[in-house]
Amino acid sequence: MSAKASVRAAAVQIAPDLTSREGTLAKVLDAIAEAAGKGAELVVFPETFVPWYPYFSFVLPPVLSGKEHLRLYEHAVSVPSPATEAVAASARQHGLVVVLGINERDHGSLYNAQLVFDADGTLRLKRRKITPTFHERMIWGQGDGSGLAVVDTAAGRIGALACWEHYNPLARYTLMAQHEEIHIAQFPGSLVGPIFAEQIEVTIRHHALESGCFVVNATGWLTEAQIASITPDEGLQRGLRGGCMTAIISPEGRHVVPPLTEGEGILLADLDMSLILKRKRMMDSVGHYARPELLHLALDGRAASPLEFTHPLAEQPDPRSLSDGQHSNPAGDAADQRVAILRSAAG
Fold first, then answer.
1. 42 forms bridges with which residues in the sheet?
2. Spatial contact of 163 and 186, defined as CB atoms under 8 Å apart
3. Other C-beta atoms within 10 Å of 62: how many?
4. Which of 87, 272, 340, 342 is spaced 20 to 30 A from 70 at the CA atom?
5. Which portions of the sequence form the region Disordered (predicted)?
6. Please, what are the domains in the chain?
7. Catalytic annotation, pick one of 163, 210, 213, 244
8. Using CA atoms, how far apart are residues 279 and 83, in angstroms rounded to an integer?
């Protein structure tokens, strides 16, 4: 269990800058400094907060979303990059753990990624949402099992999932079985309406109870001007309000402090780490309350790759270095070698 008796956690609910990555990043760095000034040891930001969550994909048909999708590519975050280095430096300067949601750009694809920076600035975890939801599938690629990991940090053992990944009980159980102490949940906020906030609350409170851990959840916020900039249609604008439930939940399934459901702000709470053992004494879902001989989970934790080298590519000579009369024919050379081997075997 955690060596710390108490951890001060901060969950940030703020609006992104919908015009630039640098503008949103500046808000992140300001919020880290503000949370650190209030004694926070852990600070959590909303889902894909940098540069912004792709709200446009929820209200625009795919045929009209190309321009905004390309703009998201332009402002997305590569890992590593100056943007991630700036967050790492801020975590190191203030001595706190930072969990940030980003749109990660990896060559020609975007991913919903969660970054966990330790208090010394080290990037402990970069994971990608394993299955984008509904409209998000037009925006992001899929993550893999390598990101379903719990990591040790200065604030304790941390695991993270994004949004509706919390509706995947096996993904949650994977983190539970690695004994997470603080679970990070991130949702977009300002989406769907009040029912979304209610669903978020049910989900994170249940996970806290089932896992016997704290849950720190951050959701985003949009101003009325930002909503109007995304779509002028008043009917569609209703889908870009509500859905905010920035909250900090104890292992007993209770709010440690009242949640933040409107406006911008930083929610702060002191996590009494002894409550983890108090809960697990009664019900440890991956320990004395588990029946692994009857039910267990198998995880493919390999990182997925579109290319695997079973043998290294042979380095080809530079044609300019070949003298007159020489030629380079890799296919022919390989065929000659096979014939020589066959002849040797026959002899």
1. 9, 97
2. yes
3. 11
4. 87
5. 312-337
6. 6-282 (3.60.110.10)
7. 163
8. 39
The rounded distance, in Å, linking the Cα atoms of 23 and 246 is: 22
Can 213 be counted among the known catalytic residues? Answer: no
The DSSP annotation for 296-339 comes to: ------PPP-S---SSPPPPPPPGGGPPTT----HHHHHHHHHH
Per-residue b/e over 2-11, b at no fewer than 16 CB within 10 Å? beeeebbbbb
Assessment of whether the complete model's pTM goes beyond 0.85: yes
Q: What confidence score (pLDDT) does residue 318 get?
A: 62
Amino acid at 308: E
Place of tokens 């996590």: 271
Residue 275, amino acid: L
Our answer to whether residue 234 is catalytic in this structure is no
Are the C-beta atoms of residues 103 and 27 closer than 8 Å to each other?
no
Question: Which listed residue (27, 41, 126, 129) is catalytic?
Answer: 129
Q: How far apart are CA 200 and CA 218, in angstroms?
A: 10
CA separation for the pair 257, 246 (Å, rounded): 10
- Alpha helix (H) ranges present in 38-138? 56-59, 66-75, 82-94
For residue 182, what are the contacts with CB-CB under 8 A and spacing of at least 6?
7, 9, 42, 155, 156, 157, 158, 159, 213, 214, 215, 216, 271
Which candidate, 129, 137, 254, places its Cα nearest to that of 185? 129
What pLDDT score was predicted for residue 331? 47
Q: Give me 318's structure tokens.
A: 């530079």
Can you tell me the distance from the alpha carbon of 189 to that of 260, in angstroms, rounded to the nearest whole number? 11
Q: Do 228 and 238 form a contact (C-beta atoms < 8 A)?
A: no
Q: What pLDDT does residue 327 have? A: 47
Active site residue 85: no
> If the chain, 347 residues long, is cut into consecutive pieces of 10 residues, what is the mean pLDDT of each piece?
87 98 98 98 98 97 96 98 98 98 98 98 98 96 97 98 98 98 98 97 98 98 98 96 98 98 98 98 96 96 91 68 49 50 50
Which of 41, 47, 104, 180 does the annotation list as catalytic?
A: 47
